[in-house]
Amino acid sequence: MSHRHSHDVIVVGAGASGLAAASSLHAAGLDTVCLEARARVGGRMLSVATSYPGRALDLGATWFWDGEERIRTLAARSGIATFDQHLAGDTLLQETTGTRRLTGNLLDAPSHRFTSGSQSVATALAGTLPAESLLLNTPVTAIRQVSQHRLTVLTPAGPSHARHVILAIPPALALERIDFHDALPADLVRLARSTPVWMGTVTKVVAHYPAVFWRERGLAGAVFSRTGPLQEIHDMSGPDGRPAALLGFAHARAVRPGFDKAVTGQLARLFGPAAPAPDVLHVQDWSTERWTAPPTVHRLTDYSLLGHALYQRPALDGRLHWASTETATENAGHIEGALAAGERAARSVLASAGLLNGVTTTRR
C-alpha cells in the first residue's frame, strides 16, 4: 500500500469474520480493503488436500451444528457440499488401567462438515471481493487515530487511511501485534489482553489412513483418553469414509520431541495393528501460529469474556470495530460466531455511514 491509499473501511484479518464483513461492505458499495498477514485466507480455517478430488481434511475449524443458519446458508449459496458427521459405533475410554469399550457414541453430537474442507468457505467469501481489495502477506503493525473522522493503518508496505477499521482477529492477538499508541481505553485494553483465543492452546492431529478400519469393528472412532497425548479422538473421514481419517485433540503443551511417535503408539493401543502406520500424520499446533496466538495464550483461560459487552461498541470515536469469533455474543468460537461478529461489525459501519439498508448479510 502507498501513502496515497485511502478507503472507507480497512478490515484486518481474512478469516471468516473479516471476509464476511468485507464482502458485506463491498456489496453495499463501500471502498473496502481486507489486509491479511498470512499468505492465505481462512485464519483458523485450514484444510489440506487429499488424493480424493474435491475432498480435504481440516486442521482447524471443522464442524457446524443445527441452528447455525449463517454458515449453512453461506455454504449452500457458495455451492460448498456438506455432509453429516459420522456417529455410528461404540466409544473407547482409555484410562491408566486400560481401555474399555462403551456402547454407543458418547462423544460426538449431530453436526455437519464441509466436503472440501472449511477453508473452502473462506475461499468462497474471498471470491466475492475484487483482487485489489484483498492483500495477503500484509500484517498490520500500528493503528493511529489522526482525527475524529479518520484512522491510519500502518503495514510494512506503508500507511493507509480509512474512516473505519474492523479488527477481525483475536483481541489478545490485536493487542500483542498492533501498536495503538495508548489510544484505547484502559478497560478495553485489559479485556482484550485477557480474552482467550479460541483453539489457541490446541494441537489438532489428523491421521490419514487407507481405509476406515475402526468402523469394521463397530467403533465410531470416538475416544475419551485420560492418558493422552490425544485427549479425545473423532472420526474425521469424508463422505462414505473417503478419505479415511481420525482427528485427535491434544493440549499444545504436550507437543515436544517424540510427540508423533507417542500419538501413533496411542492409536495402536486403541485401534490395533493398522493404526500406527497412517499414510500421513498432520500435526497443527495452533499455539505456535504467530498470526493466531500471542505468547500469553496459555494464560488466557477466562472464557466468560467471550462476547463481552465492550466488544459490541466501537472504540476510537466509533471508528474501530471488533469482529472475531471471540467477540460474538452467539456461537462464540464457532464459524457461525465469526460470521455473526463480522456481520455485526459491517452493520455498525453501515449504520454510521447511513447505509444500513444496503448491507448484504451472510443469511441472505
From TrEMBL:
Domain Amine oxidase stretches: 112-350
Listed transmembrane segments: none
Organism superkingdom: Bacteria
GO molecular function, one term: oxidoreductase activity
Family, per entry: Belongs to the flavin monoamine oxidase family.
PANTHER family: AMINE OXIDASE (PTHR43563), AMINE OXIDASE [FLAVIN-CONTAINING] B (PTHR43563:SF1)
Protein name: FAD-dependent oxidoreductase
